[in-house]
Amino acid sequence: MSAYKIFIDGQEGTTGLKIYERFKGRTDIEIIQIEEAERKNPAARAECINASDFTFLCLPDAAAKESVSLRTNPGTRILDASTAHRTNPDWAYGFPELAPDFRERIGRADSVAVPGCYASGFLALCRPLVKAGIIPADYPVVCHAVSGYSGAGKKAIALYEAAGRSPDLDSPRHYALTQRHKHLPEMRAVSGLAFEPVFNPYICDFYNGMAVTVPLHARLLGKKVSASDVREILAAHYEGARFIRCLPFAGETSGGDAADGSAGLDGFIAANTLADTNRMEIIVSGNDERIILTSRFDNLGKGASGAAVQCLNIMMGIPEDTGLA
Question: Do residues 91 and 80 touch, judged by C-beta distance below 8 A?
Fold first, then answer.
């Protein structure tokens, strides 16, 4: 069988570069290259898009929408890593572990919206519990998150890595202060919540990795559950998942070994433990009155390029961990 033709529209960005990097050594795909001088030329991009079997869009929203409009070949399937189509019901949402129908739809889709990084961590925690009736749809959800600076794009990366940078960059920086973060619409829509959460993200002085945390008051939940009950519900939901696992209840040693990179939590949750992987770990902590849910993963991995490649593999009908192990 001939190799699938792949075009990465926006290969020069952080996500595009990571996707390209993940294809090294794969013989089942052929990358369509575009001349540097032509990469913003709609006609040249259209030629590449329509010559491809799969096109990745690693672009700002407006440019991603333009690229979709350039598709005239019904055989070209698109994976969009921008925010543009994540709440569009005509697009498959690219998080296969959320439910069997998500995986099935990704497999047959011609248009897949790759989730946002913060949204991935939030949805992994909240959607199973909303669907199980544990978190009521109208629950006043709050979400805190920390991310490595790579998630802020090329300009921010340059600031963090510049000589003589501002001392402000030495500490975590709280942002999205107006509660208008671009991931909020998908966080609400895909989770099944009636309202967007209060969302407090921080960018921090490490390159890649992310931890997303949702605190819950047990007295406000839809069913009477203990913290360990919640942990068991999430563990059962992700049982058998290739890239997601639920750790033992926090406060215990996780019992992992060097082979899978896990270690005891020792009372702390580091955000960069899974950097450079496509894995996600879910941690339930707290007590039976106040329950803390945390997901940690790589914002450039399961939160971006790794998720995109995982979706591609599912669409190709090959093992989903191809090129991601």
Answer: yes
Q: How many other C-beta atoms can be found within 10 angstroms of the C-beta atom of residue 9? A: 25
Q: Which residues are catalytic?
A: 117
Sign for the pseudo-dihedral over CA of 275, 250, 254, 247: negative
Of 225, 22, 245, 212, whose CA–CA distance to 120 is shortest? 212
The position carrying tokens 């890593």 is: 81
Who contacts 236 (Cβ-Cβ below 8 Å, separation ≥6)? none
What mean pLDDT do residues 193-202 have? 98
Q: Provide the pLDDT confidence category of residue 251 given band limits of 50, 70 and 90.
A: very low
pLDDT at 87: 98
Taking CA atoms, 136 is separated from 139, 193, 214, 266, 272, in Å, by 5, 8, 14, 32, 31
Helix (H, G, I), strand (E, B) or coil at 175: coil
In the block, tokens 């669907």 appear at 131
Give the pLDDT band (50/70/90) at residue 1: low
| pTM score of the predicted model | 0.94
Consecutive H or E run containing 286: strand 280-286
pLDDT at 183 over 80: yes
Which uninterrupted H or E stretch holds 101?
Answer: helix 100-108
Average pLDDT on 226-251 reads: 94
pLDDT of the residue at 264 = 55
Sign of CA dihedral 283, 284, 285, 291: positive
Sheet of strand 210-217: strand arrangement: 173-174, 198-204, 142-148, 210-217, 290-297, 280-286, 244-246
Report strand pairing: 111-113 vs 77-80: parallel
